[in-house]
Design brief:
single chain, 267 residues, alpha/beta, Rossmann fold, 6-stranded mixed sheet, 9 helices
Length: 267
């Protein structure tokens, strides 16, 4: 892989399902070691973009490269090898309910590493320690809190020492304190291992706490309407859709109501 190439390079990507286009002409780069956010309102295509980046769907056109190596056009074996170089935290953590935390984290190691049981157990213990779950290896997902499930999902995502980790709404369903703890964990992963982190989120606290850069998707435009550092976009963007999102203001055209004093309750 090219050491000077962006960790992720997306060029003129068109994403959709059958003949329905969700995103068109999407282009952006993610630098190695960045914490990069994909943001936007509901239905803007965040999850669609993520599914294409992690190989669950093939784009209608355009290219995705990891460290300069083509992903979309690669043959199946090359794609499988590239897929092993990154991890994914799904929104619900996606743990197997019938397996213990230890067994969940061990799965990618058993499938892809070629290591023996003792080595896998040692690595699982290390990954659980890294996410603060030492002592919980033999718990089942149903016995964990929401934040602990996220931590277990992160441990599994880190099992193969990936260079890139994708996080799908890591703070979803968590209380503010726990969400902040997950943010701190993501930051530590980047600082300790140089991991490139791509975070799909609409949580402004996380965006401004962690984000080096972001892209903002818009449903009406079917693509990107802003790219840059979160603070800079909040202060200098001339697009009211961007400032409304980043400042928690009413969207354009939804200012103060002009309804009669009876309002909705009077109807």
């Amino acid at each position: 892989m090219d050491p000077v190439a962006p960790a992720i390079s997306v060029e003129h990507l068109v994403c959709g399902y059958d003949e329905r286009i969700i995103l068109r002409d999407v282009s952006f780069n993610v630098g190695a070691g960045e914490i990069f956010f994909v943001v936007g309102g509901s239905g803007c295509g965040k999850s669609t973009l993520l599914r294409h980046l992690i190989g669950l769907n093939r784009p209608l056109s355009g290219t995705i490269r990891f460290s300069g190596q083509p992903f979309t056009e690669a043959d199946p074996e090359v794609r499988r090898r590239m897929l092993r170089s990154f991890g994914v935290l799904y929104q619900s953590a996606a743990l197997w309910s019938s397996l213990t935390v230890r067994e969940n984290v061990a799965l990618p190691l058993q499938e892809h590493s070629g290591l023996g049981p003792r080595e896998i157990n040692d690595l699982v213990a290390l990954k659980l320690a890294q996410v603060g779950l030492t002592g919980f290896a033999d718990f089942y997902p149903a016995e964990l809190s929401g934040g602990m499930k996220k931590r277990a999902g992160i441990a599994r995502a880190l099992a193969m020492d990936p260079s890139i980790v994708f996080f799908d709404e890591p703070g979803a369903g968590l209380d503010p304190v726990t969400a902040r703890e997950i943010d701190a964990l993501i930051l530590r992963i980047r600082e300790d291992f140089g991991t490139t982190c791509v975070v799909v989120s609409h949580e402004l606290d996380s965006i401004f706490r962690l984000g080096d850069r972001l892209i903002m998707l818009d449903r009406a435009e079917s693509g990107i309407i802003a790219q840059g550092a979160p603070e800079q976009l909040r202060e200098t963007s001339q697009d009211p859709r961007v400032t409304a999102f980043l400042r928690r203001e009413p969207p354009p055209g939804r200012g103060k109501s002009s309804a009669s004093p009876r309002g909705v309750l009077g109807r």
